[in-house]
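To the team - zinc ion complex, inputs and output below.
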Amino acid sequence: MQVNLNTIKKQMCDVGQRIWQRGYCAGNEGNHSVRLSPDRFLCTPSGISKGFLEPDDMVVVDSEGVGVFFSSKGRQPTSEIKVHLAIYDARPDVNAVIHSHPPHATAFAICDQPLPSGIHPEAELFLGDVPTAPYATPSTQAAADAVASVITPTTNTILMANHGSVTFSDTLLDAYYKLEILDAYCRLLLLARQAGQVRPLNESQLQELRDLKAKLGW
Ligand SMILES: [Zn+2]
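Output:
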């Protein structure tokens, strides 16, 4: 993938700003990364709010998660880089990963409630099936293995039990859009359950969405 490193670093800061402003991560939580080449990845550092990222904070790691280029600030790579690498390893088509703790989506992951499908057109089109990865301690290889265990060739969004979410795509912006769509969908579900009974889309409505998805090549 041909990339301009400075442009990607700035985009990582912009995405971090949005993640923080929308309350998807508190304190120093969350991390995101971009694939620069088959075995080089640009990632956010550990120990800094996603709302205060600067381009020079980013770190380049290899496919083992070892830092190979540190910024002038000497930041260390995110401690959850193993989850990102497991996704890149399983899916060569993925170029960007965002790990976050979006509150409405994480509520489902905390209550062991599978995310329902067949209810909302945008969630159906942009997220598809959203599996939940078993719980494992953050930053461990077990957490990476847990996420890897539920990835399929079409997965782009995963809930992490009692923890948060990962969204991934061919671009960082699209991975971010999936994060927004995920939390908005979960917020809608929680509101809808208070407002009344959730009415799923019927089979012909779902078929039309599947046809639309195929037509758009998604
Ligand atoms: Zn986390």
